[in-house]
Amino acid sequence: SKMDGRGKWRFFEPAMDANVQSRRALEVDLREALEKDEFALFYQPIYDLRKDRISGFEALLRWQHPKRGMVPPDQFIPLAEEIGLITALGEWVLNRACEQASSWPNELKVAVNVSPTQFRDASLANVIANALDRSALAPHRLELEITESVLLGNSTETIATLHELKARGLRIALDDFGTGYSSLSYLRSFPFDKIKIDQSFVRDATATKGSKLIVRAITSLGRSLGMTTTAEGVETVEQLNQMKAEGCNEAQGFLFSRPVPATELAITILSLRNG
Ligand code: C2E
Ligand code: CA
Ligand code: CA
Ligand code: CA
After folding, report:
1. Using one digit for the tens of pLDDT, what is the confidence trace for 124-158?
2. How far is the CA of 176 from the centre of ligand 1 (A)?
3. CA–CA distance from 198 to each of 163, 194, 253, 255 (Å)?
4. Is the ipTM beyond the 0.95 threshold?
5. 73 Cβ inside 6 Å of ligand 1
6. φ, ψ at 183 (rounded to 5°)
7. 194-197 and 260-261 as β-strands: parallel, antiparallel, unpaired?
8. Atom 41 (ligand 1): residue with closest C-alpha?
9. Quick one: which atom of ligand 1 is closest to the CA of 86?
10. Following DSSP, what letter does each residue of 103-166 receive, concatenated?
11. How far is the CA of 61 from the centre of ligand 1 (A)?
12. Sequence-ordered list of residues with C-beta below 8 angstroms from that of 133, at least 6 positions apart, any chain
């Protein structure tokens, strides 16, 4: 390193690529973010189309950096996975989500996203048990959202962990369904409680026949397998009507509400109750 013009030390090589530099800087900030309490959970309602009411909320992680502002999860979660930070971060998310959900009305569930890397950690089942114990949240109110990549390679340990969690009463949802490579075979490897239809199909379903038929196929598949189907990314009334017509059980999206801070949950519940 050497002094720059303003007498500050520069720790990077001048030849270093600008992308690498900004990535390193993000990594440094990310490593400190937990201690500095810069994370928060936002919540997006999941709407039960039959009962015509909110069935729960999905917890979505937010990083509020003092200088960078709100860093979207797509920008820091892959990095957190790469640098091995996702285990600690995921534990924080589970604890916070259970703690916050324990103060909600009993009929409301909380859905938490769990990354493939967290599943590779043998302590995941314990981390979840601790979060439930500490918060006294009933296990059936906690739903884990996993993607197909968790099941990639069909690891017997992962399947065993999923069965163990299900036996304890937790619900398991398959997220982003339809975007992977061999979706159907994953439905055979584990009895999911819920399939979340990826928003790319929902978005196109009113315009493209192919997407509409895919949504139809997924809901009918879910029905025959006894799994709930949830349409993600519903933004318009047209899309909502389409999803209802195809027999989706639940819907989630900006049409109902954007993800909101925990302090705004009560008002979100009220506004959806009154239409
Ligand atoms: P996801 O699990 O598929 O979450 C849904 C994403 O779609 C969220 O983005 C949500 O804000 C967005 N969304 C919801 N409704 C609509 C809509 O009507 N239109 C559009 N255009 N978007 C909608 P977000 O919050 O930016 O999260 C992105 C991804 O980051 C999530 O996708 C999930 O994979 C990951 N993520 C978020 N929180 C966590 C977490 O706590 N742990 C882990 N491992 N991953 C997380
Ligand atoms: Ca999700
Ligand atoms: Ca999703
Ligand atoms: Ca996604």
Report:
1. 999 999 999 999 999 999 999 999 888 886 678 89
2. 10
3. 24, 13, 11, 16
4. yes
5. yes
6. -45, -45
7. unpaired
8. 61
9. 44
10. TS-TT-EEEEE--HHHHTSTTHHHHHHHHHHHHT--GGGEEEEE-HHHHGGG-HHHHHHHHHHH
11. 8
12. none
Taking the CA of residue 198 as reference, the ligand 1 atom at the shortest distance is 3
Within 13 Å and on the Cβ side, how many CA atoms surround 151? 26
pLDDT for 154: 61
Question: Nearest Cα to 47, choosing from 261, 275, 225?
Answer: 275
Q: How far is the CA of 179 from the centre of ligand 3 (A)?
A: 10
Question: How many angstroms does the Cα of residue 86 sit away from the middle of ligand 1?
Answer: 16
In single-letter form, the type of residue at position 205 comes to A
Question: Which of 131, 113, 120 minimizes the C-alpha distance to 252?
Answer: 113
pLDDT of residue 6: 62
Distances (CA, A) of 2 to 8, 13, 22, 25: 8, 9, 19, 18
206: confidence class by pLDDT, cuts 50, 70, 90: confident
**Closest residue by Cα to residue 109 from 149, 169, 163, 161:** 169
Question: pLDDT for 88-111, tens place per residue?
Answer: 999 999 999 999 999 999 999 999
Please give the average per-residue pLDDT across 231-239, as a whole number: 97
Q: Which of 113, 194, 239 to mutate to test the pocket of ligand 1 (most atoms within 8 A of CB)?
A: 113
List the one residue out of 142, 134, 137 whose CA is nearest residue 114: 142
pLDDT given for residue 7 in this prediction: 60
Q: Whose CA is nearest to atom 42 of ligand 1?
A: 113
